[in-house]
Design a protein that fits this description.
By secondary structure, this protein is an all-alpha fold. It has 14 helices and no strands. It has a domain of 36 residues.
Length: 291
Amino acid sequence: MSCYYTISDMFSMKIGENHLSESVLECIENLNNSIVDTTTKPSKYDRRKNNDYRVKHQHQFKSTVIKKTETDLDVHINNIRISMNKVSANNMAQHRDAIMKSLEDLKSMNQEMKPIYFNILNTASSNRFGYKSYIEIIKSVIEVNGDFDIVLQQWLIDYENTIKEIKYVSGDTDYDAFCNYNKVNDKSKSKTGFIIELFIEKLLDEDFMHSMIDNMIQILNEWSMQKDKTNEIEEIVELLYIISSKHKALGEYFISKIHDFIRSKKEDPDKYGHISSRSIFRSMDIVDLMK
């Protein structure tokens, strides 16, 4: 018997299933077994196999890398930076010569030298253990490059302005600003030591050093009258300690002012009570250095 039935026929037959002949029921059963449920999800194995196939045959795209063309200017600036960072007592002459050659080439290219000189000074003043080697390089640069002295003067002015602008920020209020506050103060301490080395090597004169110290003492006196400057006062006293510890004659120049500062809190605690014990003890260290 032929098995050509529509779905509706099959449905009707199913209702009357008990009245159908054996041959018809067998045909329906065979048709039912041959139907594949297309909604059935593929097995884990099939999915893995299909995914592996796609991964294997998909295009592998490499990220595009844009290579920056390095100019002669970049090469010379980078050479100076590398040499400045590698300077030591043993290789100073070698790196000094390399720096001088790069500076000469840059000037022949009519490049703006101010930012390059600033970078040299900032790098030289940031390494407290390599001052001597860097000073030799600075001396050579000054001898050949008359415009370097102009930049040095501006660098010193920036240093003094940084001291005037010291502003304490609590870590509880703004932790990032607090970290920046400490970073700026660390740089000021390092630059202070470097400036003393410049003075010792006669690259700065006594009049400048006295003027710089007078400005610090003036700031110290002004802030001593302000109750919200406790932490800033500590930083100024620390800079004065660095000066006196590296050059006794300079310490003697302002020692009388330090005595006045120490007495101020003892004689008028109501007015100067905000001056911290740390500031007083560090001031007493300066007095001891002068003995």
